[in-house]
């Protein structure tokens, strides 16, 4: 089969790789029918995630069909159409028992495209399949479902739930990339008074409007003043940081009201200053987190019921073997206007994976 392989910083290729096979009785092999690219994949290609070894197939988000299962898998079987979660859960360790699957200590957590071969390939091995794939309703399209592998549960859990969005709140989302836009969409599930989106790109601000943001503002044109004006000087109840740079985190802490919440979602690669000299007296809560994907079943039900707006987020689609072109488009989002790119396999191009004997 073919997969998109990381060979070191700045080096990657769509090339022949060995077919995956069942290694543990809890494994499943999934034929990949739709896959997307994450900003984390770009960080890996830049060399920012040293745990990823050269030779690793990238990717941690996919939709596909089960083609083989280990002897202990009970929740899915060959022929089932499934969502492959970005987080793998053993189900037995302390953190999994607390639904903190992202912190799994039993061989799970974020492993696909990180510590083991990932989803940007024709087939992928998924460990602990019973808890790490989700059966899909037939009415849900691949390009919609794949957005629930990572960005929607991340935005919902680490942004909206950690931020404790409540009816009547003013919510500010700083960063209108894919995760920030998903935060705009899912914040509305809790009936806030308003959601304000902050970004530098006009196309992303328009996407935020399309997803329900009542106000948008260019990050260079006084977002703090706008928030102050709209809240009679109080500040926002919840501010979601969805960029991952020091300046935006510090901006969030300046826009939150006393007693408010700052929910950090962005992946930070450099230290940010926590201005306790001004925050200590304001009763502000700051949360961080890696997605656990405990909300994925709920989000899938909402998607199937038409309650989750995913369509505006997919801006480009490609055949699966156009992986490098898709990376170029996604990596140059300022020029291309890309939000999420989805790659899929036309049905007539599907080639059966070599079957292996399962004990």
From TrEMBL:
<comment type="similarity">
    <text>Belongs to the zinc-containing alcohol dehydrogenase family.</text>
</comment>
<dbReference type="InterPro" id="IPR002328">
    <property type="entry name" value="ADH_Zn_CS"/>
</dbReference>
<dbReference type="Pfam" id="PF00107">
    <property type="entry name" value="ADH_zinc_N"/>
</dbReference>
<feature type="region of interest" description="Disordered">
    <location>
        <begin position="1"/>
        <end position="20"/>
    </location>
</feature>
<feature type="domain" description="Enoyl reductase (ER)">
    <location>
        <begin position="8"/>
        <end position="343"/>
    </location>
</feature>
<dbReference type="InterPro" id="IPR011032">
    <property type="entry name" value="GroES-like_sf"/>
</dbReference>
<keyword id="KW-0479">Metal-binding</keyword>
<dbReference type="Pfam" id="PF08240">
    <property type="entry name" value="ADH_N"/>
</dbReference>
<protein>
    <submittedName>
        <fullName>Zinc-dependent alcohol dehydrogenase family protein</fullName>
    </submittedName>
</protein>
<dbReference type="InterPro" id="IPR013154">
    <property type="entry name" value="ADH-like_N"/>
</dbReference>
<keyword id="KW-0560">Oxidoreductase</keyword>
<keyword id="KW-0862">Zinc</keyword>
<dbReference type="InterPro" id="IPR020843">
    <property type="entry name" value="ER"/>
</dbReference>
<dbReference type="InterPro" id="IPR013149">
    <property type="entry name" value="ADH-like_C"/>
</dbReference>
<dbReference type="InterPro" id="IPR036291">
    <property type="entry name" value="NAD(P)-bd_dom_sf"/>
</dbReference>
